[in-house]
Inverse folding.
């Protein structure tokens, strides 16, 4: 068993992480922290997990750096707001612990881009070079050996998985991409804000964060790597009246020399060996991936307007957050990549 | 009072029409038909309307042409599946009655386009020349005098209202438009199909009807008229887990010579005198138009990718169906355009 | 036109009040207050109401007593948290203004009961004798002449309307009543609390407030008046995953000498002349009253267990709050009781 | 590995059964049947399960008795409508196969009660004596050796688990019990009926099946066994706007000599060794059991009205159907009772 700690276990991603790790065959959670709930039993705060193993009996501790350094965990999952994660990652990494960070703090290679999109200087810029972008389907080998993995974001995962193989393969033109995504409300976190009350979100569909959502920065970073040229896209996120799930619709143009018939086979080939990416002809539906670590992908071609339409779905809290973090952890710890993740 | 009949009052659009006409100050419903419910009181089938006036006491009759021709209505609202509407519209129009059709049967000027998109020959092609496309904000004067108005579809209304003024004004380039829309489940009608069960649609978001949804035909017809050149677009509809509402997100490019700063003012100018189109800076939200005849529109510009983003919302059953039909009727009957529609 | 003011127009009840008064034919809103939004246009805070008349152009003012006393309103609707309403009602009543209070502050005749259920002394006990319990179907005549009407609460309305006629008529035994109610989430108000986030309430059904919910106090007060003896009941409220609506299921026993067949006729007779109570054989459904001022009632008898089952539904924000307040206002102002309320 | 077959794998319970058995460590599904989908791959019909193991590659076969008898399964799960299950159970049992039936066909000991509640004669009355009521917490030992287990229904499970220990222990009086339950819409099955469309069920809460819901028959049978006297109760089921979950609220009286303080301890003692029943002080919430095989129970006492209030929640498709069936199967097959069920 590998000992792990979860820092910030009370938000939606943290709670999902607890649920996954509670059934993980090779990980043992030895510490969970929550400022708000320090001292309480985890099962009291997350009653869903009561009776699901020893995890429920663990008490939340204060998220102090000293306590974390003193605890008997090899791996630390950070499920904290951006900005705060950097404060914890630095001392842990310096002490030789390995970190899977679910926040956006270490996803960008360039601290300047961070400052541009997040509106503040990066708090641990010296670690950026060490961090690996935690999307296993793209960076599996680098993740295995990394000490700090920045688990990919929810929207980025749903955009990158369909696009990267097509950019790498020269099938899609990098210069004309527009993305419309919709996320369930859990994507906004477990924050006490009126905007996310049931009465505000039910029977409501709305765009937000236009035109420069923070996730755009990591999306473009990874698309540019795949295309081997700077890629700038338009990204429109929406809030949809559901708890979980992201649906992403991508409009793109074929690259010169590419044909409509290349698209789906290229995606199938890219993900033939992957356990968590399902490529198929059927149009994807968030309900088929809800509660799972799958990303389902399909594609259509609009022959009249000469546009490719790529579609993907995932559970924003699993493949878009906690499941992906555990998939990264499994790789880092030398475990079966699917451990704890086939639900 | 103007006497009207509702043919097909049991579907979602028909029921909404009953609700609006029940409070209409100048229309009196003298007949409602429903094959399924013939003989029953309207209030029994639509208990929501019980106690809301004399309409609830009306009995449904069989939708026979002879009975309709014999009834004392000047105006007939047809809320029937496409294909069937044509069968009723022809004898009514021939008999000098005026018709507001909520189906797609008379929205296209060209019977060949109908055949292409609907997969069958048009049943009353000779009436196409007489029919007026029933989107009052675009064709108000023609609607006033028409005997047959084909009330605009739900998706088309949400796409045309933001785009038409910008194409007419030469602000948006007609050659590079992609649309992502999402509709509430009532848009699929009150049909007993497993695909629209609560258990299938809740926590579900999915695209459908790709790449050639039937509504594309009327969208392109009207965009081409506005742009004065053939316009072909990509249109991706989605089903969202809510009862009512359409949210439309449009990606487009500026026309040559146009500036980012032209967009919102052009929309504001186009709709300055309109009662049912609200243009504003705030991103629109379906919940703000639910149960109303409003279409809310906004716009953003993505300066990095040089794309305009247009956003609109409406209630698919009101401005997208029954409300629009009543707005058309008000114009045809010489009434205040807003009668019965300020909820 | 009667001039009115809305104090606390930003919560769900306040917003609903604005929506109803915006279309009211005989009331003119001359002031709206909101601590949080003072200075902003109402249409900016409640974009749904933009374009629905002059109300949207009104600016929110601070809810200061002096400003309220200085404003040109005859009637004041108080849509404030309990405790706070008393602070405003007293000076307004003293100054001869008439008040419709949507809070619980003046619903109880006995300040001691208030203290027992609300956990604090009453802030304006001297007004309790002057206040009339604002359920028009029970206290219409007293409401007409009242200067201070305490509009009945949401749960109480749904419990009292089915039970009171049956207790008055000696059909139901007062000593064995148990009530299970479920409310939509808007009943919890527009408060920034994690418990009411979409992600917490969706796919969630839970009881709360057991065994002594605050509304029990006014329910029992009015049941006791109807039965002419002290009535103590069990009341279990639940939170259901919907925005609007209350469904109430009441278990009761027949009084001695009463028969199963008396129940529905007694209800029908009691509400024969009422515009907003619909008694029928069909089991009521919250969706049939959503957005309306109706309360639908039905009854069944379980002959095997010898229990009457009474069922009622209402929209908690309309008949359970804002609609009822306007109905009370209409009576107080000598207007048609249904003015603004037939939607 | 134990070979099993699933007869009727396309409904909601059948699909859930597939999902659970796909991850079951000791069961191998060798046949799945569906009249509607015969010939198709399971993964095509249930895309959620694609990539979750060999089950997805299985093809649906026609549910013919001969084919089932010829197939290599020791255990048969019948997920069929009531009435139909009896037709399959008889030949399978006669041939020495063991059957877990999810329908209501074998839950009643008395064919006359079946006829009374289901309105038709029982199709295989001779098997009733052999069938064991499949609620493991009540009948574990009998289930182990049974050849035919009638897995307990969804509402009954939620009513029996709180009540049976209290009746057995003489804490609750058997003569004065009333139950109000609410179920998610999946409880109505995957039937193409307009009543269960999204547009009908969203924002809707309604009672149904009054006063003699079919499940009442098995509830009273088991309560009578526990109380050792005939028990007749009132049961009011409701349909709530959610996909999964049942919430049950029970009103009852203390038995003579019992005290309020006995209730929770008696429940805790009864379920101390149970893995799937969680008794606690916190009021239960359907979202904490959704997707799990847990039933959460709590209790309150209304000292004013002298009534006990028992509350329970479960996932109607798991502990109320497929999970319970697998729990029964685990017992019958001599496996760990929790195999495949700790999610």
């Amino acid at each position: 068993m590998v000992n792990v700690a979860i820092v910030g276990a009370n938000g939606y991603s943290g709670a999902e992480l607890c649920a996954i790790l509670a059934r993980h065959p090779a990980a043992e959670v030895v510490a969970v922290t929550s400022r708000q709930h320090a001292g309480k039993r985890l099962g009291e705060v997350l009653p869903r997990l009561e009776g699901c193993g020893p995890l429920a009996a663990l008490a939340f501790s204060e998220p102090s750096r000293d306590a974390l350094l003193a605890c008997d965990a090899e791996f630390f999952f950070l499920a904290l707001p951006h900005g705060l994660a950097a404060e914890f990652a630095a001392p842990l990494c310096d002490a030789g612990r390995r970190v899977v960070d679910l926040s956006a703090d270490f996803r960008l290679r360039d601290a300047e881009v961070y400052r541009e999109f997040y509106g503040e200087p990066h708090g641990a810029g010296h670690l950026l070079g060490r961090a690996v972008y935690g999307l296993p389907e793209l960076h599996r080998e680098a993740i295995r050996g990394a000490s700090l993995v920045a688990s990919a974001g929810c929207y980025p995962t749903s955009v990158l998985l369909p696009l990267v193989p097509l950019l790498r393969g020269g099938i899609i033109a990098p210069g004309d991409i527009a993305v419309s995504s919709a996320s369930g409300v859990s994507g906004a976190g477990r924050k006490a804000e009126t905007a996310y009350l049931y009465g505000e979100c039910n029977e409501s569909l709305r765009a937000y964060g236009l035109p420069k959502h923070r996730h755009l920065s990591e999306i473009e970073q990874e698309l540019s790597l795949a295309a081997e040229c700077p890629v700038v896209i338009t990204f429109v996120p929406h809030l949809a009246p559901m708890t979980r799930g992201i649906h992403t619709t991508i409009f793109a143009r074929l690259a010169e020399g590419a044909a409509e018939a290349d698209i789906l086979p290229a995606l199938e080939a890219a993900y033939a060996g992957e356990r968590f990416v399902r490529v198929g002809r059927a149009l994807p539906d968030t309900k088929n991936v809800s509660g799972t670590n799958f990303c389902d992908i399909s594609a259509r071609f609009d022959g009249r307007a000469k546009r490719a339409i790529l579609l993907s779905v995932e559970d924003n809290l699993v493949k878009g957050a906690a499941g992906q973090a555990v998939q990264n952890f499994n790789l880092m710890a030398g475990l079966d990549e699917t451990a704890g993740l086939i639900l």
Observations:
- The two ends of chain B are 20 Å apart (CA to CA).
- The first helix of chain B runs from residue 12 to 22.
